Amino acid sequence: MSHASHSLKQLALQKFKKNFWGVFSFYFIVLVGVVSVFAYVMAPDNSQYANQMHLSIHSKKPGFAVEMLTITSGLEVDQNIFDKIFFGKKNTDTEIPISSFAINNDTLSYTEYASDGLQGVEKAMPSSAFSNNNPQDFIKQKTFLFGTDKYGRDLLSRVLVGARISFFIGFVAVFISLVIGIFMGSVAGYFGGKIDAFIMWLINVTWSIPTLLLVIAITLALGKGFWQVFIAVGLTMWVEVARVVRGQIISAKEMQYVTAARALGFNDFRIITKHILPNIMAPVIVISAANFASAILVESGLSFLGIGAQPPMASWGAMIKDHYNYIILGKPFLAIIPGLCIMSLVMAFMLIGNALRDALDVKG
Question: Locate the ABC transmembrane type-1 domain: which residues (predicted)?
Fold first, then answer.
């Protein structure tokens, strides 16, 4: 029996490897996962939430470059390396975009950057204001590969940091939906009767409420915030899992191996967890992949409505909300780039779901 199970797993893996889009989507999702975890290591702006604002260079096109003067505050921030890598650097320095500068007689003279052909403010600082008395070391050219948003923040950094919310909400929401859905579906399908009728009534009531409306209600009840959104999305996605598990268990509990387990005196908990569930997980895995995509879309919708991740936290949905009106102002990239990110990640989960469905299809 173990050998047969091992062979079925190998066969499913071989079928999955032959699906180009499934394998491509898998590696793409892994890449997004790595970016989500190490976003601050990869982002040009590694400050917390990539929130360095430069209003004078707002809404610049991709590839925009400007010289940046960094003025150190001298304040020491107590922050360990772990905190910097995973949660961003607590930045106390001031960055000033400049259009020109000159160093004469131990004095730095510079002109602040101004958009639309305007003349920037001219200022001067003594060289002694810099730690090594050499202002040249504090002036670097900075290139914004994705341009800047309406607050002058680096759009690439915001996209990388925003991937964390969209990616992890899928995992948390799917985990919550699996725990609740498998439990409710197992109890309803195995015991039947009044328990089944009550759980099915609960499923139908939950399913009759529009998902986004239910998430909004739960979010408002729990309060606005990062984890509240995760929990709210997860609590609305368990019904699909429960219905699938219930249907599969109703079919499986009449099988001979379940009858044999009962004859051997095994209790109901062991029969469900050790014998039935391992044999019905294929459709649950497939629906979980689809729920990943749904969770990302729901979170993006919540952020667009302003009740998802709250500023200054980076979120792809919030980025679209902030910049959708720029589409008609000649700067559509500000909304299109995060929109393409959402579309790509959702498409990857849908493709991997289709690939898993084909690979786990026993009849195929």
Answer: 163-353
